[in-house]
């Protein structure tokens, strides 16, 4: 049976330009009827979903986590399932969902039709997949250039983080959750919904994108050397074992800061403090592999 799909590919994604033609050919061979929209700026994503949503059965998005973040609100609004072609630098949502980086394999995952209902994070009216954060990661986002990501790939995040850390100052914040108020002095507060962010760092050990929880950590560093144990612990999600990292869990979190700070959601600046964060259970359906062991992930 022919499946009608809206295919949108971010041509500015790290592998976007050369992957569009390949994806179109493969999806046509897999019996998809496509409406194809090459994307030049993020605003086109939501506009295209609203324009074509009533004519398709699913939406396929080619790009990185920022591209997916730009389309998530319109997908929830239209209640359309999402197929992912991972074409970005970090591809953390694809990593969380075990979607292969190979375009032919990713297309086959979508064609197989196995869907997973996932939770979404929500902050001040904006949905997100992976993580929302204040502080250090916002400075990294502002400094990290498209050229650096194209040239260095995932290493660009590490280089930029080291540059930014030396210039970062602690912020004062109040975290309210579970009928408790906590005052902190921190360089970063991150609130995760998924499993991975920042190119493969774990939000928290054991965190999943369908566990109906938000996982918060606060980096309350006192000395520059404390970043090095963090680099070792982050990939396993064990940063909460360090005494200068506060970890908390809740379904709703309020965050107040001494002045307004930008909020980074999935690598894009989309909101600011003060902010309310919520987990929205089973908010979106995504096409995923039915059996993880049958696909070649190739993340490392």
TrEMBL record:
Domain DAGKc: 1-127
Molecular function GO terms recorded: ATP binding; kinase activity; metal ion binding
Keyword Nucleotide-binding attached: yes
Keywords: ATP-binding, Kinase, Lipid biosynthesis, Lipid metabolism, Magnesium, Metal-binding, Nucleotide-binding, Phospholipid biosynthesis, Phospholipid metabolism, Transferase
Cofactor(s) of this protein: Mg(2+)
SUPFAM superfamilies: NAD kinase/diacylglycerol kinase-like (SSF111331)
BP GO annotations: phospholipid biosynthetic process
Sections of the chain in a coiled coil: none
Superkingdom of the organism of origin: Bacteria
Gene Ontology CC: plasma membrane
Record-linked PANTHER family: LIPID KINASE YEGS (PTHR12358:SF106), SPHINGOSINE KINASE (PTHR12358)
UniProt family annotation: Belongs to the diacylglycerol/lipid kinase family.
Protein name as it appears in the record: Diacylglycerol kinase catalytic region
Native source organism of the sequence: Gloeothece citriformis (strain PCC 7424) (Cyanothece sp. (strain PCC 7424))
Taxon lineage: Bacteria, Bacillati, Cyanobacteriota, Cyanophyceae, Oscillatoriophycideae
């Amino acid at each position: 049976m022919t499946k009608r799909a809206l295919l949108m590919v971010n041509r500015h994604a790290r592998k976007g330009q050369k992957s569009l033609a390949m994806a179109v050919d493969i999806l046509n061979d897999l019996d998809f009827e496509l409406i194809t929209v090459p994307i030049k700026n993020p605003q086109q994503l939501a506009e295209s979903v609203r324009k074509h949503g009533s004519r398709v059965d699913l939406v396929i998005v080619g790009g990185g986590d920022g591209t997916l973040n730009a389309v998530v609100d319109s997908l929830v609004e239209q209640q359309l399932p999402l197929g992912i072609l991972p074409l970005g630098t970090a591809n953390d949502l694809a990593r969380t969902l075990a979607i292969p980086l190979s375009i032919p394999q990713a297309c086959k995952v979508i064609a197989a039709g196995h869907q997973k209902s996932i939770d979404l994070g929500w902050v001040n009216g904006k949905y997100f997949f992976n993580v929302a954060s204040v502080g250090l990661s916002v400075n990294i986002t502002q400094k990290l250039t498209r050229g650096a990501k194209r040239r260095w790939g995932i290493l660009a995040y590490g280089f930029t983080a080291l540059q930014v850390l030396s210039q970062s100052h602690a912020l004062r914040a109040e975290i309210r959750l579970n009928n408790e108020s906590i005052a902190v002095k921190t360089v970063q507060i991150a609130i995760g919904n998924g499993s991975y962010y920042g190119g493969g760092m774990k939000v928290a050990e054991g965190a999943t994108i369908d566990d109906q929880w938000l996982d918060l950590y606060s980096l309350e560093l006192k000395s520059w050397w404390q970043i090095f144990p963090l680099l070792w612990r982050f990939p396993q999600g064990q940063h909460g074992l360090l005494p200068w990292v506060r970890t908390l869990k809740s379904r709703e979190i309020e965050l107040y800061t001494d002045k307004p700070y930008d909020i980074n959601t999935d690598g894009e600046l989309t909101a600011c403090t003060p902010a309310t964060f919520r987990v929205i259970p089973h908010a979106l359906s995504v096409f995923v592999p039915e059996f993880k062991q049958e696909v070649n992930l190739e993340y490392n």
